[in-house]
Amino acid sequence: MAERQFHPDTPELRAEWDGFAWTEANAKAAAEIVARYPAGRQASASIPFLDLAQRQVGAMTDTQGWLPIPVIEFVARELDMPPVRVMEVASFYTMFNLAPVGKFHVQVCGTTPCMLRGSDDVLSACFKRGMKKGHTTEDGLFTLTEVECLGACANAPMVQINDDNYEDLTEDSMGKILDALAAGQTPKPGPQVDRTTSCPEGGPTTLKKMAERNYDYRGQW
Ligand code: FES
To answer: So what family is this one in (predicted)?
Structure first.
């Protein structure tokens, strides 16, 4: 499980982030988000606002993004909420990074289905490339976090890297994905074996005619 502690609130942090404000594009996006909710219910926008803020920090720092305390306070001001209420939301959801991360946030699922299907091999590929759980590599490229189930158990073992899932992994395929990212390439997300989403490997094994067209089997029942 990822460590869920806020990065220390220091004068240096304040100097860097106290002046945080939306970019022009994000100010427009924020206005659209808050308009989805009835008047007086703007606290409902705290999750999308934190996500927007984290992405803006990511764009500013060339990382996946994180939430410095002054940025959380900015979100609280925007939504007219006590900062501690927004901090509660940020610290509950692991999609929000409470400390700086690298350009690629490698979140390896270590819950039982992924563990039984080889998450140790996935971690091994990360360790061989200098990653340590809870740390960012010295070149700032990768942060490694072990997380709980990410909801893709049918394609275990899997990993989430920034906004993409990579599934049906082996140590070899995980290594290739990391090497491609390090080389500035864009590896194909999704299953790393020959299947579409969670369909059988190699193609359908039942109701095969449905794969070609909307075949009506009802007359054969
Ligand atoms: S156990 Fe890994 S995605 Fe569910």
So the answer is: Belongs to the complex I 24 kDa subunit family.
